[in-house]
Write a structure and sequence with these properties.
36% of the residues lie in helices and 11% in strands. Strand 46 and strand 47 form a beta hairpin. By secondary structure, it is an alpha/beta fold. The longest helix has 50 residues. The relative contact order is 0.05.
């Protein structure tokens, strides 16, 4: 299979060629796509097929995560898997590696599992080896399958679908029977997984076309009858039927043929088994019959044409299958989304009202009622809104329609669907809508387009539509009209058929669709026969039984909930008389009743009015149940709350007695205590303990999704770039027709050789003359295009108090899953950096570019800024237009330069549209793959959540979370459910939360506070949808307890609720003693007014500025009474008022004050509540202030003080408010003005009726002065203030009058500041030491003061000291003097170098200048070259001409390395993207050298098998004259008539022939006469006889010497040269096999060398580089050898001398190593020479040190003093160590050895030689004990056993080639420095570096 583009005009996914292909790395030839693109391929019959994205058509694979092809068992090419490479190196970025099968062929790795030793360390499976020794990935053997078969179906499905060996297992066509049976068992079990739909689909997709399904299974079925075990056969038959049914159901079209065959074989085997006497169970026969009907049904559909053969557009539903119809209530089949038919309806659908006064007839009617109500609540607004929108579109024009506001829906116009965005949980799409009609929307607080909202898009007036939900909403992006949405499955399929750039109208319903969807699905799936608590919920039976798990004699222990944990004996929970007293449990009577009811009844209802402690009681109940979990089988307890705040509060209470075992499901938690229990932490945090199969599955799915995401985002970036500016002509080369391409580039002003110019900009008029032309065309009258309007005034605004916006709260509550990746910036197309790079490479001009055309020469582009802006704006205007040229018009265009500017832009836009369409076509299948991966990911999340919840004791969820995780809860099956805030929850939510296993339901709430809210108020009011299950069951008189003692409100506040709302409510004694509110004469007051409200246009909310200003001023007044901000809450009834308050409350004054709407404050409380009721209008509309539930919440939040503000005259028309006002009037707590009382002046009172009245108490008191005398004696200058009465915090700002010292100096600080202890005033004093006058601080003794006068002393060197008088003179004189350096040179340096004894000598800066081996002068200094011992590397540029025709850019070198410039080899099909020195893959496309007379049948890289065609070209140029070229060759751009001078210019001598034909060389553009050029190209084709050699190089243009690389006529010459060049490259770089082998050897042995970590990392990095040459390895090996030699020298010195000598030698070594490390060693001739000389010097120095040490030990040092001096002088001299020096010093060494008698024995030298000669042993066999007695070890010379020295009894010898302590080599015997067995033997004598 070829991954190639056939020919020059072939279909290419990216449409990239030429320069773009070169820049982006996308190839259209056999090397495939490096970045995830692809090329087309050939089908079986030779037809072209769509390219496969992300893999290559040859074995080189994808370097960035694509794939390569592989060979099957029979040698056939197979399609690779995404994310792996088709070669042995594998994908380093997380893919896999290939492996070899038993037949030896290479097989592709599986995604995320590696099959070689360097594989994925994060997990996977065990590896094994194939028969030929190759490692393979984890396998699915018999034992593994057996283990898998024991797991749950969901675990089996996940494990199989993602196991890397599963595809290979299913490919096997020869399998043992028992393995087939086991595999069928495992597969059938996987197919029964209920909640893993996408995983099962993926598994079926793997199975349906596999060898197992098509070959193995048929063979097995054919022989199945031979075994007659009935039990075994029954199970096998059932398994196979399940598999066949599921595969056919999921993929009916593509699997029906195979399933039909298998069914036939199955039935035949069953008949044979029956004939043989085996009884086939009726159940199996029935299943087979159903399968037969199903097959027949699918075959019929296929015949009818309703099923496309081989294409599965949908799966089968049971209702599609004959015989599967069930008598089901119609609500079970109702779609959740409205159908087009429903939108046509004018009458409302049939609904039943929620029955609240009597029981339901049956469970089906109950479920049907609530399903229809919920569905209608979701869809009515959408349905009626769309119907009204349709009507208005016929009545109004577009402008008026956009201004129209609709009651039921929110409408968005001019909507366009943008690019796909890959997020973890979905494949989302960006959309753009018109924001002009929405200017007044305040997006931060708007409820528009919140997460999860349902939107409906239509382009045909809602004849058809697409459904989607909002998945990301960033207010900053929404302001620009941008959001992310995810389409439903059905809509996403429709999306593929939508025309490009289609404009939609989008409508939004404010309902939170996700919550509705899960509940509606739950209601449809709920079986009426096993719905829990039907007896009470449906039948409303008032006789409530005990929980089913509770037996009559069960004992409960309530010790843990007693008042002080008193010891209580267990008691019979169901016996009332056995219960302990309420005082023991610390409960009042009603609380005790509630506890007893909750523990003894399976359905308990507890009503808790405000402040009565319902949460406290709920926690007592939970504590008691959890302490007695054994009675309910230690199952899970589910806690469900309506709000996140209530859930946090309840779970924090549980946490006090249950430190572990809690799981909180939900996204928005503000509790730090519960953070570790959040499901996100439990699944991904450090404490996560996920099972291995889940960890592996997640790893693999992440890898698959990330790779797909990267590819899709790359394509998105290309699409985005096409809108960001003008595409370069090279990008459009595949899009533009050949004639137009040639026409575009034949323009006179375009110079093809100039890569920095862009012809397309000139063609579109975006150049210098184009700007001038635009000036004349600009007739808009605005002076110039896009003129700046001036910077807008930015008003400074003080930071305001933070208020949690209602929209923010709603959205946070909706986002349940914390694992979503909606982080800002992640959803952008690629990273900003990547995108900018892509823009730079793809665009000839960027829209954001404000520099004109910076690539052009400066003299061509010097214009004023306004002119540049005109060009950019011109480009923006043209790109924003949608009009394009038709394809018919395009065909009729002959010369595109002749088009008008308008038509040029129309044609350009057509090209862009075509370019974008190509990219989108290739991206669609990828999006499908990603969506499938997302579906499997979501199922894994489901499985992960189930795993966590099953191990929990308490599960906490909001109602929204419970609806989302409904299916998980059905599997976890919690036995006890506690619903907090149950009266606020819609009944349907509670129904779907309950599983069949639930045996105990406790509802806690208060139906007289907030009720459930519905989207459609009509349903809430008229259909009783707003009546909760809690309220309905209370109304039906099921047993319940109401708590009747409140612990929150002072009696003045509580009396507003009783009896107006509650019949009775007792006050706990604790509320009777609250302090009065300071600064006021009453604790409760209602401020009356009649100031009118205003309506907020966007959401029709209301605000009242008068109230807002009053409340804010009142809040400030209370803060001045020393109340903390946290003690005050401002409540309002409308969100618009919330926004109004926010604008009036600066953060520096009101930080900490809580501001909320009433509906979001239930369950909360505070000391002081300020209530703004808002409503005040002439119509007398009070809105929902007439709802008692909301009024109850509003009036019951305050503990100590409640202050309301509203229009009492209007509110008094509502009976509840009328009663409330009557109660207030009884104690004079209502009026037009609130009385403020000064705490300091009792007689001062202020009547406050508006905000300005509070100005009479500017500091919270009154306007009288404070007059408090401060401790400093001054008077407080503030007006009366009640805070800080003792003035502890007051700061006196008068000047301080204190005297600091006897001299009368005053403190200069303010009065409130602490005075300094010591007087800081500076006065003149005389310093005793030097008698200088200085300004010294008054308090300081002049003896201690440091004199600042410059020092006048003279240093020992004669120079003046440069320090101050008061500090010691400097020890280092920095005056520059002439220094005599040790090298003999003189230079200026600091004086201290000359005078200080141990001062380090400065580095000599004299130029070295020595002539190097390369004949260049050394560029270093004397100091850098270590006084001439070893030199800096030569940096003179080589500039030799390489084999590739480039100049060598390396510094001076004897052998040039491979060229690292970009390769310029190219052909008509593609271009090599490697470096020039790397191997070029040959082009395997068919040769393009064709003409009408003859054609070439070879491949592109092979020499052509046809002669050149010399017939003249018959084409006519655009100028109208005949072409001067040859047939089949590209037409020259010059004309013999139009360009006579240039064409006939003599070069070869044949150019002026009238019949001469010419060629244009494509590499340089020169035109040459063809006969002469043919002769020129033939020269040197054959080697000359005299030389027998041929220069290997490309032929060059005879005019400009440019290498000829791309020319069809001379393709054979070029291919032969390139083949020879490739051979030279290979020779230069070295054999890849030997390089890899040596690389591995070096990596293995690297640890044995003593090198630092930095150098180790550097060497490893080089060794792991792909671009490694033999020379690189040679350099590394030499470097390591050098380091090893140096280390061994140092080791010798360390063993044989003193520490002083070691340090000196180490210093010399360090200088040498520094030279080697500092300058990148290439081991040039000079470096080798320097290294050789220096190593010899160091070797001799080491030998000298050792000899001197031994001489000192023997007392013979005086004998060798003269020799030692000679050695030191010679070794220490400057300059390089010469060969003569070495010879002379060797002789000296020998003399020293003779004098010292280095043997160290009491024998003469002659005797020692005789002994050594007699033993006939190699050096290194002689050793000595710790006391110096010599002994010998024979054989290898290594110590293998221990003995005692015969002279001193010390241990001699050793073991394992290790000498015993104290033993050492006896060098004095044979001169050896190391043992004979050691590799370092006699290293001390080495002279040459064999590098």
């Amino acid at each position: 299979m070829e991954g190639a583009v056939g020919g020059e005009r072939g279909w290419n996914l990216g449409g990239l060629r030429g320069n773009e292909a070169r820049r982006r790395g996308w190839r259209g030839h056999t090397s495939g796509d490096r970045r995830g693109g692809g090329g087309e391929r050939l089908g079986r019959n030779g037809e072209r097929q769509r390219p496969q994205l992300g893999w290559r058509g040859h074995m080189s694979g994808d370097r960035r995560g694509g794939g390569g092809e592989r060979l099957g068992r029979n040698g056939e090419r197979q399609r690779p898997q995404l994310g792996w490479r088709g070669h042995t190196s594998g994908d380093r970025r997380g893919g896999g590696s290939e492996r070899q099968s038993t037949n030896g062929e290479r097989q592709g790795p599986q995604l995320g599992w590696r099959g070689h030793t360097s594989g994925d360390r994060r997990g996977g499976g065990s590896e094994r080896q194939s028969t030929n020794g190759e490692r393979q990935g984890p396998q699915l053997g018999f034992k593994t399958l057996q283990d898998i078969s024991k797991q749950e179906p969901s675990v089996v499905a996940i494990t199989l679908s993602l196991h890397p060996a599963m595809p290979d297992l299913l490919k096997e066509t020869n399998m043992e029977k028992n393995r087939v049976e086991l595999l069928c068992l495992v597969l059938s079990k996987a197919f029964t997984a209920k909640n893993n739909r996408s995983t099962v689909q993926h598994l079926a997709r793997l199975l349906k076309d596999s060898g197992f399904f098509r070959t193995t299974l048929p063979h097995y079925l054919a022989g199945m009858w031979s075994e007659l075990n009935p039990v075994r056969r029954k199970q096998e038959l059932e398994n196979i039927v399940v598999i066949l049914t599921q595969v056919l159901t999921i993929f009916p079209a593509s699997s029906v043929e195979a399933v039909g065959l298998l069914l036939t074989l199955l039935q035949a085997s069953m008949n044979k088994l029956q004939t043989a006497g085996v009884n086939i169970p009726a159940q199996v026969a029935e299943s087979v019959e159903k399968l037969e009907n199903l097959v027949k049904h699918v075959q019929d559909r296929s015949c009818e044409g309703t099923l496309h053969p081989g294409r599965d557009t949908y799966s089968l539903l049971h209702s599609d299958v004959p015989g599967e119809e069930e008598e089901q209530p119609i609500f079970r089949n109702l779609p959740i989304f409205p159908t087009p038919e429903e939108l046509e309806e004018e009458s409302r659908p049939s609904l039943r009202s929620n029955i609240i006064s009597k029981r339901y007839t049956n469970t089906l009617i109950y479920l049907d009622t609530h399903f229809r109500l919920m569905r209608e609540d979701l869809l009515r607004g959408l349905r009626e809104g769309i119907q009204l929108l349709r009507q208005k579109r016929m009545e109004l024009d577009d402008t008026e329609l956009k201004k129209k506001r609709f009651d039921d829906i929110l409408v968005y116009f001019d909507v366009k669907i943008g690019l796909p965005h890959c997020i973890r949980t979905n494949l989302a799409y960006g959309i753009q809508f018109d924001v002009q009609p929405l200017k007044s929307v305040r997006w931060e607080n708007s409820k528009r387009l919140l997460y999860g909202s349902l939107v409906c898009l239509s382009s045909d007036n809602f004849e058809s539509f697409l459904y989607a939900t909002v998945v990301d909403r960033d207010p900053k992006q929404v302001e620009k009209g941008k959001i992310l949405i995810a389409f439903t499955d059905e809509s996403r399929l429709k999306l593929t058929g939508i025309e490009k750039d289609q404009v939609f109208v989008m409508v939004e319903t404010p309902a939170y669709f996700e919550a509705y969807r899960h509940v509606l699905e739950g209601l449809q799936e709920q079986n009426e026969n096993d719905m829990p608590f039907q007896r009470y919920i449906v039948e409303c039976n008032t006789d409530v039984h005990p929980p089913a798990y509770l037996q009559e004699n069960d004992l409960y222990n309530l010790t843990s909930i007693t008042l002080r944990e008193l010891r209580l004996p267990p008691f019979h929970i169901l016996k009332e008389e056995a219960w302990p007293r309420q005082t023991v449990l610390g409960l009042n009577e009603s609380q005790m009743q509630a506890l007893r009811l909750a523990l003894t009844k399976e359905l308990a209802i507890i009503q808790g009015p405000p402040g009565t402690g319902k949460t406290h009681v709920g926690l007592k109940i939970a504590h008691a149940l959890l302490d007695n979990r054994e009675h309910w089988n230690n199952s899970q307890m589910l806690v469900v709350c309506f709000t996140n705040h209530a859930l946090d509060q309840f779970l924090e209470g549980i946490l006090k007695f249950l430190p572990n075992g809690i799981v909180r499901v939900g996204g928005r938690s503000n509790s730090e205590l519960l953070k570790r229990f959040n499901i996100k932490e439990l699944t991904s945090g450090p404490s996560s303990k996920m099972p291995l199969y889940l960890r592996n599955a997640f790893r693999d799915i992440y890898l698959e999704m990330d790779k797909l995401k990267e590819t899709i985002q790359y394509q998105n970036s290309r699409l985005q770039c096409s809108l960001e500016g003008i595409l370069a002509d090279s990008i459009l080369e595949n899009i533009i027709s050949q004639n137009h391409w040639d026409s575009l580039h034949q323009h006179l002003g375009y110079r093809k050789g100039n890569l920095k110019s862009s012809v397309i900009l000139e063609w579109l008029g975006l150049h210098s003359t184009g700007i001038l032309q635009m000036e004349t065309e600009d007739t808009d009258g605005d002076g110039f295009l896009g003129a700046a309007t001036g910077d807008e005034m930015v008003l400074w605004q003080q930071d305001l108090i933070h208020i949690v916006e209602e929209a923010e709260m709603i959205q946070a509550d909706r986002i349940i899953d914390d694992n979503t990746d909606l982080k800002r910036g992640k959803n952008m197309a690629y990273s900003e950096w990547h995108f900018r790079n892509m823009q730079e490479s793809m665009l000839a001009m960027n829209l954001e570019q404000d520099k004109g055309e910076p690539e052009q020469p400066e003299e061509e582009w010097m214009y004023q800024r306004q002119q540049k802006r005109k060009m950019i704006n011109k480009m923006k205007r043209e790109l924003s237009k949608s009009e394009t040229m038709s394809e018919e018009e395009e065909k009729n265009v002959l010369h595109i330069w002749a088009l008008s500017m308008q038509d040029r832009w129309r044609l350009y836009r057509l090209w862009v549209v075509r370019y974008r369409a190509d990219i989108r076509t290739g991206t669609v299948p990828l999006e499908d793959e990603y969506q499938q991966a997302v579906d499997r990911y979501n199922e894994l999340k489901h499985e992960q959540t189930r795993f966590i919840l099953q191990r929990a004791k308490v599960i906490g969820m909001t109602t929204t979370g419970a609806s989302k995780f409904r299916k998980v809860l059905q599997e976890v099956r919690p036995r006890v459910v506690i619903v907090e805030e149950a009266a606020e929850v819609l009944e349907a939510h509670i129904i779907t939360t309950l599983s069949q296993a639930c045996q105990h339901l406790i509802l806690i709430g208060d139906h007289q506070q907030l009720r459930p809210t519905s989207t459609v108020y009509d349903l809430e009011k008229n259909y009783k949808m707003g009546v909760s299950m809690f309220e309905r069951l209370v109304g039906m008189r099921l047993p319940f307890v109401r708590l009747n003692q409140q612990h929150r409100m002072r009696p003045e506040i509580a009396r507003l609720l009783t009896p107006n709302i509650y019949s009775d409510l007792e006050n706990h004694p604790s509320v009777l003693n609250f302090d009065d509110i300071r600064g006021l004469n009453t604790n409760v007051f209602f401020v009356e007014h009649n100031e009118l409200e205003t309506q907020f246009k966007e959401d029709r909310s209301h605000q009242n500025l008068h109230e807002a200003q009053f409340v804010v001023a009142f809040c400030r007044y209370l803060l001045l009474q020393e109340y903390k901000p946290e003690q005050i809450t401002i409540l309002t009834t409308y969100t618009a008022q919330l926004h109004c308050l926010h604008k009036l409350m600066p953060g520096n004054l009101f930080k900490g004050v809580r501001v909320h709407v009433v509906d979001k404050y239930q369950g909360e409380e505070n000391d002081i509540v300020l209530l703004s009721l808002v409503r005040s209008n002439t119509q007398g509309k009070v809105g929902f202030l007439n709802i008692s539930n909301r009024v109850c919440v509003a009036l019951s939040r305050a503990k100590k003080g409640l202050y309301c503000m509203g229009n009492s005259e209007m509110l008094g028309k509502v009976q509840l408010w009328k009663n409330t006002f009557r109660t207030l009037k009884e104690k004079d707590q209502i009026g037009r003005a609130l009385t403020l009382c000064c705490q300091n002046h009792a007689e001062s009172k202020i009547e406050a009726s508006c905000a300005d009245d509070f100005k009479q108490a500017p500091e919270g008191g009154c306007t009288k002065p404070c007059e408090f005398r401060l401790d400093c004696g001054h008077v407080c200058e503030s007006v009366c203030h009640p805070y800080d009465k003792e003035h502890q915090k007051y700061q006196c700002l008068k000047n301080c009058e204190r005297i600091l010292c006897p001299l009368g100096h005053k403190c200069s600080l303010k009065c409130f500041a602490d005075c300094p202890k010591d007087c800081p005033i500076r006065i003149e004093k005389i310093i005793p030491k030097c008698q200088h006058k200085q300004m010294v601080p008054c308090h300081q003794d002049p003896e201690e003061f440091i004199c600042k006068v410059p020092c006048q002393k003279t240093l020992l060197c004669g120079h003046r000291c440069d320090s101050m008088c008061g500090i010691p003179c400097t020890s280092k004189c920095m005056v520059k003097v002439m220094l005599q350096l040790s090298c003999g040179h003189n230079q200026l340096g600091a004086c201290f170098h000359k005078t200080m004894k141990h001062a380090k000598e400065p580095l000599c800066m004299t130029s070295c200048g020595q002539q190097l081996k390369c004949n260049h002068a050394c560029r270093g200094t004397c100091g850098q070259c270590n006084n001439g011992r070893f030199h800096l590397s030569c940096n003179h540029r080589c500039k030799r001409l390489l084999i590739c025709s480039h100049e060598c850019t390396e510094p001076c070198t004897s052998s040039c390395p491979p060229c690292d410039k970009p390769c310029e080899n190219c052909c008509v099909h593609s271009k090599c993207m490697n470096k020039c020195g790397q191997h070029c893959a040959p082009c395997n496309e068919p040769c393009a050298w064709q003409c009408v007379h003859q054609s070439c049948s070879k491949l592109c890289h092979e020499p052509c098998d046809r002669p050149p065609c010399d017939q003249p070209c018959t084409l006519t140029l655009t100028c109208g004259h005949p072409c001067i070229g040859l047939c089949g060759e590209k037409c020259p751009s010059k004309c013999r008539i139009c360009h006579e001078d240039k064409v006939t210019e003599i070069f070869f001598g044949t150019e002026d022939d009238p019949k001469a034909c010419f060629l244009q060389l494509e590499d340089c553009g020169h035109i040459v006469e063809h006969t002469s050029m043919d002769t020129y190209m033939a020269i040197d084709d054959e080697p000359q006889a005299s030389e027998g050699q041929l220069a290997i190089k490309l032929k060059e243009c005879p005019k400009c010497r440019t290498p000829i690389r791309k020319n069809l006529r001379y393709g054979s010459h070029i291919n032969r040269s390139l083949a020879a060049i490739e051979m030279v490259k290979t020779k230069i770089r070295g054999s890849q096999g030997s390089i890899n082998l040596q690389r591995l050897e070096l990596l293995d042995t690297l640890g044995s060398y003593k090198i630092n970590s930095d150098k180790d990392m550097k060497i490893k990095k080089i060794l792991r580089s792909k671009d490694l040459t033999a020379n690189d390895l040679w350099v590394i090996q030499n470097n390591l050898n050098f380091i090893d030699r140096i280390e061994k020298l140092l080791s010798i010195v360390r063993q044989n001398t003193t520490l002083t000598n070691i340090c000196e030698f180490q210093k010399s070594i360090n200088n040498f190593l520094l030279w080697n490390d500092q300058f990148s060693q290439k081991f040039t001739e000079q470096q080798m020479f320097d290294m050789q000389r220096e190593l010899q010097r160091l070797t001799l120095r080491a030998e000298l040190i050792v000899l001197c040490s031994r001489a000192e030990k023997k007392g013979k040092h005086s004998l060798i003093e003269s020799e030692t001096q000679i050695m030191k002088e010679t070794l220490g001299k400057n300059g390089q160590f010469t060969e003569q020096d070495g010879k002379r010093l060797k002789d000296v060494i020998e003399e020293m050895k003779q004098k010292v008698s280095v043997t160290g024995l009491d024998i003469s030298e002659e005797e020692k030689k005789m002994i050594v000669t007699a033993m006939k042993l190699q050096p290194g066999h002689w050793y000595k004990c710790p006391n110096g007695h010599v002994y010998v070890i024979t054989e290898c010379g290594g110590a293998m056993e221990s003995r005692q020295c015969p002279d001193c009894k010390a241990t001699i010898g050793g073991s394992s080639h290790r000498l015993a302590d104290g033993n050492q080599v006896a060098s004095e015997m044979d001169g050896a420095q190391h043992a004979a067995w050691s590799e370092a033997n006699n290293l001390i004598n080495f002279e040459d570096l064999h590098l």
